[in-house]
Amino acid sequence: xxxxxxxxxxxxxxxxxxxxxxxxxxxxxxxxxxxxxxxxxxxxxxxxxxxxxxxxxxxxxxxxxxxxxxxxxxxxxxxxxxxxxxxxxxxxxxxxxxxxxxxxxxxxxxxxxxxxxxxxxxxxxxxxxxxxxxxxxxxxxxxxxxxxxxxxxxxxxxxxxxxxxxxxxxxxxxxxxxxxxxxxxxxxxxxxxxxxxxxxxxxxxxxxxxxxxxxxxxxxxxxxxxxxxxxxxxxxxxxxxxxxxxxxxxxxxxxxxxxxxxxxxxxx
Amino acid sequence: xxxxxxxxxxxxxxxxxxxxxxxxxxxxxxxxxxxxxxxxxxxxxxxxxxxxxxxxxxxxxxxxxxxxxxxxxxxxxxxxxxxxxxxxxxxxxxxxxxxxxxxxxxxxxxxxxxxxxxxxxxxxxxxxxxxxxxxxxxxxxxxxxxxxxxxxxxxxxxxxxxxxxxxxxxxxxxxxxxxxxxxxxxxxxxxxxxxxxxxxxxxxxxxxxxxxxxxxxxxxxxxxxxxxxxxxxxxxxxxxxxxxxxxxxxxxxxxxxxxxxxxxxxxx
Amino acid sequence: xxxxxxxxxxxxxxxxxxxxxxxxxxxxxxxxxxxxxxxxxxxxxxxxxxxxxxxxxxxxxxxxxxxxxxxxxxxxxxxxxxxxxxxxxxxxxxxxxxxxxxxxxxxxxxxxxxxxxxxxxxxxxxxxxxxxxxxxxxxxxxxxxxxxxxxxxxxxxxxxxxxxxxxxxxxxxxxxxxxxxxxxxxxxxxxxxxxxxxxxxxxxxxxxxxxxxxxxxxxxxxxxxxxxxxxxxxxxxxxxxxxxxxxx
Amino acid sequence: xxxxxxxxxxxxxxxxxxxxxxxxxxxxxxxxxxxxxxxxxxxxxxxxxxxxxxxxxxxxxxxxxxxxxxxxxxxxxxxxxxxxxxxxxxxxxxxxxxxxxxxxxxxxxxxxxxxxxxxxxxxxxxxxxxxxxxxxxxxxxxxxxxxxxxxxxxxxxxxxxxxxxxxxxxxxxxxxxxxxxxxxxxxxxxxxxxxxxxxxxxxxxxxxxxxxxxxxxxxxxxxxxxxxxxxxxxxxxxxxxxxxxxxx
Lengths: 268, 268, 248, 248
Hints:
The complex is a heterotetramer, with two copies of chain A and two copies of chain C.
Chain A: E1 3-4, H1 7-13, E2 19-22, H2 31-39, E3 45-49, H3 55-62, E4 66-71, H4 83-91, E5 95-98, H5 101-112, E6 117-120, H6 127-130, E7 135-140, E8 143-152, E9 158-167, E10 172-173, H7 178-186, E11 189-198, H8 206-209, E12 212-213, E13 218-223, H9 241-250, H10 254-267
Parallel strand pairs in A: 1-13, 2-3, 2-9, 3-4, 4-5, 9-11, 11-13
Antiparallel strand pairs in A: 6-8, 7-8, 9-10, 10-12
Chain C: H1 7-18, E1 24-27, H2 32-47, E2 54-57, H3 71-78, E3 84-87, E4 91-93, E5 98-99, E6 102-103, E7 111-112, H4 119-125, E8 128-132, E9 141-142, E10 164-168, E11 172-177, E12 182-188, H5 194-200, H6 219-234, H7 238-243
Parallel strand pairs in C: 1-2, 3-8, 4-9, 8-10
Antiparallel strand pairs in C: 4-5, 6-7, 10-11, 11-12
Helix pairs in contact in C: 1-2, 2-6
């Protein structure tokens, strides 16, 4: 059964040290709840970006909340590089597990399908492979002459993302962003912030059902309007480019980042 | 680009000898078009049931159109066993590749993801495994102590199924029956009969889009009202149980089957 | 007094007892009694204010928790989100092996059944698999199945967290001991004694001389079966529901 | 006469030329010029009654052919349904290796870029990968990349049907010979001569003394870029579109 909680309660339900799966900015990122995680001083996260990170991940890194980062990229999009991420790479304060997008999906698919690994084409010859001890080169069991990569399953403890709506039964509409569906299937629990809560079951409408994450995967829902801001929410609202530019400028220095986060904290 | 054709034209576009992927009865089966395949005397099919077969598959077998049958089961549901299938098994007139449902999905997923194989849990100790030369037992590359099955990719030449609607751009609404989506992704081409054709793009409505198969996978669409009859079409109309009972009784003998098929042919 | 509990109603009730404690149970195609048993547990728990039971019936539009197609059931099982499932079997043997393919030699079996469906997978991954076979006979319960669709036991080199939990027929209820790889007679249904069971079971099992009788549903449970459950069954199993006792 | 063709417009036009013949082209995140080039080919083909070009822009709601999430792009590429894609690269070397990770030693790179995205995969599976890097300098076009996000060439034990097709910068256009594993200078943009290219390219390549000038778009094509293409870009790249010449 899905619990309906406040955003602050949800932030308390995500423990330090967990493996946290996050959706990309402008799709289903949950910077609103991430700010509350920072406020409450979360630490030692193993963040899995599915498959890339943006402002919410940069903020978690800037706040010192991330021990390990598994991602195919971190970027602020048009606002440029991710300043806290670049700084943390330079000073070695996070453990990096660089990936490539489809390998993250393959790892999540392995977890979704309950298998320990997935094969994936490509990658051989990339230094990304050299740096990953959880990926291996094997032979195609049906053709010894072909070398192929296998990646191990990625099972986050908690998937956290923002969505347009949930119903009061715990079903969550994601629309065509099925990478978030995959993330939820692969994770032990899914925590979801939403813009709205529907009294009517989202599964009743056959035309809509295909884009709905069933309640069996959803551990908790919290209503948090504009919970995707300042990044966007797919097909609902675009990113607030000015705010992200403002963040990008501020976060160029650790002090600027702290001031930005404090400013948001008091405004929230 | 998707071609819009008549059902008879579509039947002519499916060649004898091809590997034909079919959806289950009552979901997205296309018995209407299958009857036209029989009328035109199609032969030597390698039928892949995704993952099980019903009346349309039994009819193809009865008509002598099937050389190889890859399936997890063939059944008429409440109307009992599939008579032509049982007869063909006894007299050895089809080559059988018995499977188990998730292994069919794993094989289709391998084709969808463009990998030569997929690992799958379970199966070891089943005689189904013993009879398949395209499945193997290997070790988990991350844990030598674990034996695990790998199945090779299943890529049908053509996926054939029936759906509620297409739009005039070639997008097809499947709803939550994503096994049909998987079948289409895995196949080289998809041929689809539909109840209706929409003038408005089915991708325009974000709430509906998640259940829509994009036109890039759809080679041809033919409008064929009640193309799922006498089996059902998911969330549109139920199976016609009486008609299927009638078929089950008739098909108990080869002569009865021929009479049934002729009767349908003249009525169509 | 209403009409006496039928054999099918007893089996439906027994299934609901076997499911006690599960949070999510799925029911395959062509399985009206397992579907009814799962629906009954859901209704009873709801009536008694107990934990919500998620019932997923393959082929149902209404009783369907999935939005990812048929493969989601298998994924869900692999993720550990499915607690119970049912398997039938043309033949079931004393090691818990199930045969859904046919009698005699493969591939040209003289009697061919539909096929293995998802058995070879779900039997490994769903903790509580209930074997359900109405016909209790030497033909259906055999020493050794002719074809193993899904094996009852597995060695430690293979990942397995699921397997046989119980075997229910129209005459008796067995439990399964996974360590020993053997069935144990738990009770006989009204009208059957342990000697009947011994005489109609083709494999050896423990507690042969069992004197326990399978308990019948009480009056309230019986009306639930004949009312709400019969109605819920109609969507997927109109013929079966039509043949059940009930009002109208 | 309208304002002269800008360097960016020339690159957009050149991209559309490099894509000629493709049926389906996808464009990754943060790639306004590749997106514009793909949109331009679509518009030109439509205008001229040529084959429909499917343009999939990641991050776009409107220019999106997918309904299965971001993984569908990769699946689609693996299925052979994607003909062209773009890769950038902080560094690109003469073997076609691409570095999207950073300069210096991994993992504590003094300069860190976002990361490899899907490059290590798409480079193997998409037939026509166009390398696009605005900055033509010894810093960006190097002898040997510091980190291989995606390799330009691969031995025959690895499945590969895709790879580098061309390299486009703000100064020149190169093709890539997959057998030789080397670039070939095809043309220099107006304002650059072959000596400029040699002086600013850190790797060796064929046809060094190339005298061909990259062709400019005609007036009609230029208005298409400044009109329809600029409008189509606005959804995903409002800042970029705002900085382009055009009416209003």
